[in-house]
Specification:
Layout: E1 5-7, E2 13-17, E3 19-23, E4 37-39, H1 50-56, E5 62-66, E6 78-82, E7 87-90, E8 93-99, E9 115-121, E10 125-129, E11 146-150, H2 159-169, E12 173-177, H3 188-195, E13 201-202
Parallel strand pairs: 3-4, 4-5, 5-6, 10-11, 11-12, 12-13
Antiparallel strand pairs: 1-2, 2-3, 7-8, 8-9, 9-10
Helix pairs in contact: 2-3
Length: 206
Amino acid sequence: MLEFITINEHSSIRIDEGKVIYSDPYNISSAAHDADIILITHSHFDHYSLDDIRKVMKSDTVIVCPTSVNEPKELDLSVKQVTAGEKFEVLGVRFEAVPAYNIGKPFHPKSNGWLGYIIDSSAHGRIYIAGDTDITPDNKQVKCDIALIPAGGTFTTDAVQAAELANAIRPKYAIPIHYGTVAGSPDDGEKFRKAVDSCIEVVIKL
């Protein structure tokens, strides 16, 4: 199910969308060097890892990151810095940047301008990568077909809160991420599945 989406671990996502798109590559075990586009949601070590970017990048890879993230000039790659609400295109793929932040937690302040992304795919519909976030007025307005939502708690939504967000935005498919290693436990995916409305198909990739 949804074989074109792979979760390495945590929030490390690979999407083969004709163009190969990585989001927050982390703990990459083999150097595939196949990334056309790399999305960075924010600057925490488990989301913005230069060592892991080097394992997936090619000479012509384009990196997309928030304007608040320091441009990785040492990689000698093309970098597009974007802000929340911005719609843009990279290598023929359309994207939208969505605010990602905590409410009542100190880890991801809204003022940092950190992001999630929507990939607007002609083949698979709108794919929402939520980034490190709580349920917010911004992400409750997202329209998507596939949603990848953090479920590990502590720094983000936990499994039940992630399901609440999925139930609010009602994608066709929901995939829990960001649990089992840096945050959360391996059974958070099943907790998420049980709390998601039956009209939404939950796909466990971790």
